[in-house]
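FAQ: What does the model actually see?

It sees only this:
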Amino acid sequence: MRGWLALVVLGCGSGSDKDGDGDADGITDVDPGDADTDTDSDTDSDTDADADSDADTDTETTVTGACAPTDNPLRFSCTFNVDPPQPLTLSWHRTDGASVERSAVDDAATTEHTLTALFLAHDQDYDWSVIPHTTSSSPALTGTLSAGTPPPNVLSRFDMTGASTMGLVGGENPCSNDATAVIYDTNTGDLVWYQDLNPAGTLGPDAMVRFQPDRTVLAETDGQVVKVDLEGNDLLRLDLDYPGLWGLHHDIYEWNGLIYLLHQEDVGGGLILDTVWIVDQQGDTVAEWLADDHLNIPGNASGDYLHTNSLNLDAAGNMYLSFFYRHTVAKLVGDPADPSFGDVIWLMAGDPPNQIGNDITVDWSAVGGADSFRFQHHFQPRANGGYTLLDNDHGRALIVSVDEGSGQAVVEGAFATREARCGPQGTAAEVASNGNVVAGCWGDWLREYDDTSGAQVWEGHLVCQNTPQGGPKVARYYPLDTW
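And it is asked to produce this:
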């Protein structure tokens, strides 16, 4: 039993009680009751240490900064500091409510951010706001900016009827033959972007500009290949016009970091053929496609026999060429790393018989008008199959599907340009987001058609503020709905 001590003593026969206490001498009597010492150490030391250590203190996000004009009146550079560091989104919209809100995002979790407000209509006010990503869902800073006025030689706009789905459309300066690329807002018709790519160069039917999916602008102008971003920064500038090379002409295309160009080759005997020249980002030659190595050029051919006027590639590296004087389009192996580089996959003649071959039989029964295409331009694959091309001789953009296995093609749609017949170049393009067809000659009119019904949904007419002699002209337009 806890707290109880029992002592049992067994006496020997010689023991005696000399002290008269009833025990043997030398034995101390311990009272069992006295030994009940409470050894219970369970003292109540319960101290409530449950102090509130919740460190969830509110951190206030602060954003400072502003938007400032650049040397281009349709671009503003906006610099912000955010604490704590995190990504930011800059949004802006016209104060009068016209057009759509646009935005730019910097995903870096940093303190300082520089973003550019783009696609501003000249002489318009814009309200902007900044939203931090991780600590807020509402604007932390707001302000207003005022876009300026572009130079007189680039001031232009679309007068429009209907509703376009393009959002933005690009081309070259319609009011001058300089090397300025331009973009218009198809919600309002306003010019919203421009950039002089080469002060010494020109753009037009023989010196083309490209608006690329990665939101860069690529051009061939005055013997240079130029590539810029939307802020106007040079990404590439190659001088390729050197002795022994005939002038670069017509189209340009970038695929897998390689630049595809057209130049002319004097093969002798008064015959000129077009060559596809492929260079890398340093301007070094990677490969050349020589027409007389891959096409059946007749012995009596002379002059500018092919006059290749458009150049495109698909994601797989197939190359598409349009031969103006032969009324023929071609699909070829375009990847220089492929052992079959340059080989013809098929030729399709729009007006047979022709002099370089025809592998495709075309069914025209689904559309009215002529059962042929002539002097075609802008031949390219569509995103979901089939091809578009501009039938210049009959003033229409065509959608054509091709069954390579059977060698059969069907013209699935025909979409009239405003003019009954187109001259050089022109547009037969696709709105990437919905497949709508965009059609126009080299000039100042452009149309958009619903891909399903074939109905015209929009028409735009370019007008220059300072109209040059001959009126405004754009060689090729590019729908920029994905921008």
